[in-house]
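Cross-check.
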Amino acid sequence: MARVANGRSNLYNAAARAKARKASLIDSTRMRQLLQQGPESIGVSIGELGYRTEMDIYAARMSGADAVEAALFHNLDNDTAEVMRFCQGHLKSLVGIYAERFDYEKAKTVLRAVNGGASDELIASQILPSENPRNARWLDIVRTTETVAEAAAAMSGTSWGNEIALLDGEPSLEEMEDSLDRRYYADALKAVKGRDGSPDLTRYIRTEIDYLNIVNQFRGIRQGLSAEKRSQLNVPGGKLGDAVLRQASQTESLEALLDALRRSNTFDDSGFEEAIQESTNSGSLDPIVSLLTHKKSAMLSRFAYLNPVSPFPVIYYIERKLLEVRNLRLLVRGKAIGLSNEALEAHMDF
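Predicted model, tokenized:
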């Protein structure tokens, strides 16, 4: 768990460096230019836009979309580590609360890979490439375990491992992932509410919890989960309130769920009716997820603007960098399987 510690923060310097990095990210115009390229040339262009070092690492044994995807996430790990290095004191701890979620995601990746029966070789070559030194501890777990239970036990001593150990019986993969979400947000809220914490960062994390719960409820209805199961998916700590979430868990349609959420005075329903209609027409939750992603990004952008000397410019940069990597991954994978430019652009987030 990232601890909020005292110490002299370099807020001005870190915020300026984060803003400079954000300015160098691929803008929407350049992203649309990439969209027009073919699968053969898009990898070269991505390399020229700041990913060449990592792409060269994987070029020796990988090709095409696999090589580009590995390079993208390796670059994201490197970039996040560099950002953490130029943050100091209390600021480093606050930014670390946000950055720690990447460790939780890798813990989930390990559990999924082991649960799916992926071989050690496949995991080390494709899922968590061994060329990335930040995958080393995760690969050690993979190589020394054979079952999900063993992998979870091997994580003991970490926040995520300790949380999984508290589950009763033989929990499913889904239950483990849900427990990791609960632990991450519980730790994050505890840390950010500590002495010298950030009220706005607390507000942002609570909003993230609400969005996670909303998506889980929509997904639960689509999957036909029982009200009891859907209630268990809820992560505490958000602003919607336990009563509203309990009512939401009892609904049986997307429209009824929206009505239940509206009973909370903290719920912003703008855009939801259109997103639900699109979701119904397409049979996918992507429109709802995309709406919430936009809302979250807009909130971060606003906080970064209103708090120019704070952790927000740094956190907002990391979020935009992650978005860039996701967009590029979608482009590369989509081009490789022949998706149309229109379909790809509809799923990208600028």
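The CA atoms of residues 22 and 317 lie 5 Å apart. Residues 199-293 form one domain. Passed to J.P. for a second look.
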